[in-house]
Amino acid sequence: MLHHPAILLLLHLLLALADHPPPSSTTVAAAPPRKSISEAANTAKPGCQTKCGDLTVPYPFGIGLNSGCSIGPWFDVNCDSSSSPHKPFIATGNLEIVDISDDQVRIKNWVAARCYTETGNITRQNTIAINFTGTPYSFSDSNRFTVVGCDDLAVIVGSSGRNFTSGCLSLCSQSSDIIDGFCTGIGCCQVPMPKGLKTFSSALASLNNHTRIHSFDPCGYAFIGDQERFQFHTSDLQDTGFQNRTIQNVPIVIDWAIGNANCDDAKKSADFACRENSVCIGSDTGLGGYRCNCSEGYEGNPYLSPGCTDINECESNPCDEHGICTNTPGSYSCSCGDGYNGDGRKDGQGCIAVNSQFPVIKFSIEITEENEALLGGQSGFASDLYAINVGPESSTGIYPIRDNLDDHMINPR
Ligand SMILES: *[C@@H]1O[C@H](CO)[C@@H](O)[C@H](O)[C@H]1NC(C)=O
Ligand SMILES: *[C@@H]1O[C@H](CO)[C@@H](O)[C@H](O)[C@H]1NC(C)=O
Ligand SMILES: *[C@@H]1O[C@H](CO)[C@@H](O)[C@H](O)[C@H]1NC(C)=O
Ligand SMILES: *[C@@H]1O[C@H](CO)[C@@H](O)[C@H](O)[C@H]1NC(C)=O
Ligand SMILES: *[C@@H]1O[C@H](CO)[C@@H](O)[C@H](O)[C@H]1NC(C)=O
Ligand SMILES: *[C@@H]1O[C@H](CO)[C@@H](O)[C@H](O)[C@H]1NC(C)=O
């Protein structure tokens, strides 16, 4: 198998790439990282609080119900001052915000659980449902639906423009079968979620009520959450703190957008939210709506008057030590002082003393055998690359069970 010519060629290609990364032909200007709306100088509307507990709340969000600090009632952040630190919630509901970014909100998780006695009686259970219909929010595809347990299956039912149903089956017969760190159906299973879901509900079921595995796994759990933030561990099955830990540590990721019109239509409307020197970005959830970004070379909060302001790039000294930096709206330019030639840019030619020799060429492309083979053979390899057969990923069971899913619907209202 390893001697198949296509595979040898592919290996050769990979090794060649690893040994000789292709030289980059152009140097990309090291633009300063763009600031998020939470870092803008004008984060909140004038006269409004900026922080609730540890959370920075940037406009179009605003602290206080009906305080006029947000762009609309669904962007109101209800700051509960009875706890310390204060806790921020979306509007009048019980969804606690942990982060607000330029395009997403992260909220504290809700985890469905079902626990059993040795004889299979249910000791406690809860289902989970969140309904964002009529709000600017939808579930992000950064979430995954996860089931943890050794005798558990759960369905997820969601809706947006279309209906979504999926599920996950997680089984194991002994704890030694479980592989730490792998959520692939033994003790833990995961399915991806599409973007644009407006509602989500989930309930757990079991094949044998945990009677055969109770000694090492008394409960099953189901939740959606940021796929980057959850890693399955064998010890999770016996951890009585699992549900609370997951609620604290694995946020649910929510996409937000303003309205449901696209940019072209929104621009014609009197309440268009993007201010000067910003661009409108259409939401990619399929549900319509838009957000605003500062234009290239500008910073600030694009939703607040007077809009985004020019970045003085000269403050970060982008020009050669012999160069002269001139800030321009949205950009900057470099020139060279008397006695020097060049573009004046640190990331370009810089400034070269007129009398000095031509600058040394900074790198040369070494043509090695590997590179020749690589360059010459690339198109020929393409068909071989496609011919390599990758088996389907192991699929998880999908159980279209729909009982009791509407119980305990959490309504953010
Ligand atoms: C908007 O700005 C953010 C950084 O603030 C950037 O990551 C993102 O790519 C921008 N989006 C567009 C569509 O320009
Ligand atoms: C367990 O369930 C059985 C029937 O399924 C019932 O007879 C029994 O009383 C239950 N035990 C407890 C402790 O609830
Ligand atoms: C979600 O809420 C909307 C309106 O608030 C309601 O019409 C709809 O039936 C709810 N969806 C579910 C699945 O409960
Ligand atoms: C989604 O499901 C509901 C209830 O089962 C149904 O009334 C509705 O027509 C479905 N929507 C779509 C787009 O299939
Ligand atoms: C599991 O529990 C449910 C409800 O308590 C009961 O109806 C069902 O018969 C039990 N199943 C098994 C396999 O014990
Ligand atoms: C989980 O948190 C709830 C509410 O904060 C608390 O009542 C409960 O005792 C906690 N459970 C565990 C096992 O820590």
UniProtKB/TrEMBL annotation:
Chief subcellular location: membrane
Record-given protein name: Wall-associated receptor kinase
UniProt-listed InterPro entries: EGF, EGF-like_Ca-bd_dom, EGF-type_Asp/Asn_hydroxyl_site, EGF_Ca-bd_CS, NOTCH1_EGF-like, WAK_GUB
Signal peptide: 1-18
Compartments it resides in: Membrane
Species whose genome carries this gene: Sesamum alatum
Membrane topology: Single-pass membrane protein
Domain EGF-like per the UniProt entry, residue ranges: 310-343
Record's keyword terms, sorted: Disulfide bond, EGF-like domain, Kinase, Receptor, Repeat, Signal, Transferase
Higher taxonomy: Eukaryota, Viridiplantae, Streptophyta, Embryophyta, Tracheophyta
Domain of life, per lineage: Eukaryota
One GO cellular component term: membrane
Pfam short name (any one): EGF_CA
GO molecular function: calcium ion binding; kinase activity; polysaccharide binding
